[in-house]
Amino acid sequence: MNNGLKSSVPTDREVILGILNNSGDTLNKLYKAHFAMILQFILNNNGNEDDAKDVYQEAIIILYNKVKEGNFELSSKLKTYIYSVCRRIWLKKLTQNSKKTGNITDYEDVFVVEEDVEHHEEKDAAFVKMQSALEHLGEPCKTIIQDFYINNLSMQDICEKFGYTNTDNAKTQKYKCLQRLKKIFFQH
């Protein structure tokens, strides 16, 4: 491979493998590779550079999650996929802010990514709702749930941390906390 400019733009396959291997370098290169195109698109369609950064980051997260879930099939160039996701997100934002969406200026071919954007937003909303439910849970439940599900502590660790006499007691407490969390989650 020559060391010209081309080497800094990863191939689609490199990006997908990079994401699967948790390569920060790949994400950085990907970020730099197509940002100018998205910036141009947003600037020409009632947006500014900050809008472009927000939309682009969201699109990269959607791509990242889709690849990680293992059900990503690239039916076009990655550049087109990212462009389509960004376009979809921006159209949605414009509609929400009731700005003109009648004549969007396009640079790339576009294909349907509705489902990917919707799925991402649902997951995002559920996460926010879960965070809010956790806040209402109170102690020690909040910490027990976070330690077990987010920080991956074992029941033994939790048992020692909270001073339970044995892991069965800790499990019972975790179960009660979980029931309470579900109740709060579905009330919100």
From TrEMBL:
<dbReference type="InterPro" id="IPR007627">
    <property type="entry name" value="RNA_pol_sigma70_r2"/>
</dbReference>
<dbReference type="GO" id="GO:0003677">
    <property type="term" value="F:DNA binding"/>
</dbReference>
<feature type="domain" description="RNA polymerase sigma-70 region 2">
    <location>
        <begin position="30"/>
        <end position="98"/>
    </location>
</feature>
<dbReference type="GO" id="GO:0016987">
    <property type="term" value="F:sigma factor activity"/>
</dbReference>
<comment type="similarity">
    <text>Belongs to the sigma-70 factor family. ECF subfamily.</text>
</comment>
<dbReference type="InterPro" id="IPR013324">
    <property type="entry name" value="RNA_pol_sigma_r3/r4-like"/>
</dbReference>
<keyword id="KW-0805">Transcription regulation</keyword>
<dbReference type="Pfam" id="PF04542">
    <property type="entry name" value="Sigma70_r2"/>
</dbReference>
<dbReference type="GO" id="GO:0006352">
    <property type="term" value="P:DNA-templated transcription initiation"/>
</dbReference>
<protein>
    <submittedName>
        <fullName>Sigma-70 family RNA polymerase sigma factor</fullName>
    </submittedName>
</protein>
<dbReference type="InterPro" id="IPR036388">
    <property type="entry name" value="WH-like_DNA-bd_sf"/>
</dbReference>
<dbReference type="InterPro" id="IPR014284">
    <property type="entry name" value="RNA_pol_sigma-70_dom"/>
</dbReference>
<dbReference type="InterPro" id="IPR013325">
    <property type="entry name" value="RNA_pol_sigma_r2"/>
</dbReference>
<keyword id="KW-0804">Transcription</keyword>
<keyword id="KW-0238">DNA-binding</keyword>
<dbReference type="InterPro" id="IPR039425">
    <property type="entry name" value="RNA_pol_sigma-70-like"/>
</dbReference>
<keyword id="KW-0731">Sigma factor</keyword>
